[in-house]
Amino acid sequence: MAKKNFLFNTICSVCVTFFIFLASAPLITLAIPTTQFIQLAPISSNSQLVEKENLTAVLPETNTDLSIGINNEPEYDMFTYSERQERNLPTGLPATDPYYGNKIIYLTFDDGPDPENTPIILDILKENSIKATFFVLGTEVLKYPDILKRIYDEGHAIGNHSYNHIYRELYQSANTYTEQLHHTDEIIKNVLSVRPHISRAPGGSAGSFTKHYWDILKTQGYIEVGWNISSGDASNAKADQILSNIIHQTKNNNFLWSHAILLMHDGKGHTETVKALPHIITFYKEQGFDFHVINSKTPSAW
Ligand SMILES: [Zn+2]
Question: What is the pLDDT of residue 94?
């Protein structure tokens, strides 16, 4: 009898343990992305705060809210690549599952900050209560650090777009490319005390990157971000042409609506982009899109 009871108790305790495990599974799932990011230790008040001590402050009440929070927050690293090496910290990023949403648009602006265009763009974004992503150049951040600070303070995401955008210097080798990323990271970190780990190759990676580039970026913790909708604003297009380029590509590629990544420019001379922007935002709002910032959960463009 005692043996039977013992057996019964053992089975019960196994059941109870299993039940507790099942019941806590969602919590375990919630903890996984957080744990993965502890090493990244972003410290911006606008960013996803994932340091352990801040856990309760950022954990929303439901799983759904959490996924929205994580998918739509900028992420930064408090250390540069070389600082991570010096401290023997991991340099590569932890793997994350890409977030495929329903009608998600990522507005991206390259080549700034620019004293004329960027502040107006920031005003327009603020009026519309939406966030975007800015891929900045080291040379321009040196000239306009206050504008970079404003982008950051207003909760937009910042990415590295090389130091000088000069193809013949940049694309000599994977090393010359990453040297420009490192240099720009340091310039950004001097202003913000954090550095981004998203980057975008000037002119795009196609035709410029070999496998070696991809390997080195992965090892050093960079996420190369492409685009799948081009505004065509790099040419002399007028605002109405830019808008119609965007509408046309968006409507014809609804398979991209889970992660539409729109390329625009806020660099010098792109006043037509600024003119088109309110109409671009209205178009996406009317179509029911949500505006997200790029981070490690953003799916690859293609
Ligand atoms: Zn560019």
Answer: 86
Contact 272, 115 (CB under 8 A): no
For 77-291, CATH number?
A: 3.20.20.370
Amino acid identity of residue 27, one-letter, is: L
Does 110 qualify as catalytic in the annotation? yes
165 catalytic residue (yes or no): no
Distance between Cα 9 and ligand 1 center (Å): 67
Residues of the chain with CATH 3.20.20.370: 77-291
Residues of the chain with pLDDT under 50: 1-8, 10-69
Which one from 161, 265, 270, 292 is the annotated catalytic residue?
265
Nearest in space to 228 (alpha carbons), one of 204, 210, 194: 204
* CA 201 to ligand 1 center in whole angstroms: 7
pTM, two decimal places: 0.79
Of the candidates 130, 109, 37, 129, the residue with the CA atom closest to the CA atom of residue 75: 37
Of 110, 185, 233, 266, catalytic: 110
Q: How far apart are the first and last CA of the chain?
A: 65
